[in-house]
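Record filed below.
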Amino acid sequence: MATNATPMLAITGVGAISPVGCSAIETCASVRADICRFCEWPRYTPLTADPDWEEAEPLVASCVPDVTARAPGPDRLVELATLALRDLVSRAPLRRAALAQAALFLALPEPDAASGKWALGPEWGRRICAHAGLPAIPVASARCEGIPGSLAILSDVQLHLGRQPTTLAIVVFVDSYIDEGRLAALDHDVRLKSARTTDGIVPGEAGVAILVESPGSADQRRAVPLGLIGPVGLGQEPQIRSSDKESSGRGLSEALRATLVNAPPKASRWCLCDLNGQSYRAAEWGVVLARLAAQLSTVNRLSHPADCLGDIGAATGGILVAQALAGFARGYARADEAILWASSSEHGLRAAVRITPGKNGDKQWRAK
């Protein structure tokens, strides 16, 4: 299904923190270079198929070194979001006076046996702003939908800026699986990568913050757009991972069709997504490639950050946006646009968005 028709919006700033970079610039360069920080995490030992006979193995994870190792999940979320916001503010053309005209959008972890107890929601906006030393910014939307919610949140931004007098939107994407209770929940559900679950995820964490506004607002503030947000598409997959059937590919096909509406038929495209080694998602992408062969025949490269960052949940959409912007600015390969998509193994939401280059956003991608 497609979202309501909305005007294109300009991305005029991006900040990030990840296991492989203390800024968006460093993170995107590391992902492109396939640099990772996968290492043993001593605070959790994965389950084995037979604990009486099999020797325990260490957990492999991907952690942000600037966050205290002993910090529990909720504290890690706040710290990750703060570091991402500081990177954004240090690089984006954003004055404190402009924050009075801003609205905050939060892409947060999906509830599980552990994160469901963290009381995630709009009230986290005040907590994050206070920790970052920023005035309280009103929260217009908070999605606790994990990976697909991190792209679906962009449809909320489009709808809000199209109807409200607010001129700026700050979107924070943050997630962390580095929490003992959350790791245990993933392991119990046979989702944590180990000898027992070779098709599982490597747990990671990251925080991203992007600044979004209308092209008119960007011109007025003399802010150079790094890229433009096009149509956001959403879909619902009826056969999720817990089903006894393989994914039908219906939800992802719906999402991609919606974001490709009115797209140039022969545009040169990148495709960036949330594939993280799980066969469920890889098989779904194969089905979609067959169904949308005409629209996706010009894809130059399929890239995903999980090879370097592990699974970063609700931070995924922000990292994908940052990758697209870095690619446009750095000229990694010729492309007229980038298609981003995200899915979830645990519920049926699928989301996709089309990002096109801005006027000239290379200055913000130069190291200071």
The mean pLDDT is 88.
